[in-house]
Amino acid sequence: MHGRGVGKRIGAGFALAALASALFAVPASSRPAPAANVAPRVADASRTGRTSTLRTAAADPEITLCASIGDTTMPDGEVVPIWGYSLDTGAGCGPATLPGPLVDVTAGSALTVHVTNVDVPQNVSLVIPGTTLTPDVVGVASGATATYTFIAEDPGTYLYQSGVGDQRGALMGLYGALVVRPATAGQAYDTAASAYDSEAVLVLSEVDPSLNADPTGFNLLNYAPEYWLINGTAYPDTDTIAVGAGQRALLRYLNAGSLHHTMSVLGTHQSVIAKDAVPVSFPFDVVAETVPAGATLDTIATVPAAAAAGARLPIYSRQLHLTNAGAFPGGMLTYLEVSTAAANQPPSVEAGSGQTVAGLSASLSGTVADEGLVQPLATAWSKVSGPGTVTFGDGSAVHTTATFSAGGDYVLRLTADDGQHVASDDVTITADLNVHVGDLDGTSAAIAGNRWRATVAITVHDALHHAASGATVTGTWSAGDTNGRTVSCTINGTGTCSVTSGRISRATSASVSFTVTAVSRTGSTYRPSANHDPDTDSNGTTITVNRP
Question: Which domains are delineated in the chain?
Answer without folding.
Answer: 33-340 (2.60.40.420), 348-432 (2.60.40.1080), 434-546 (2.60.40)
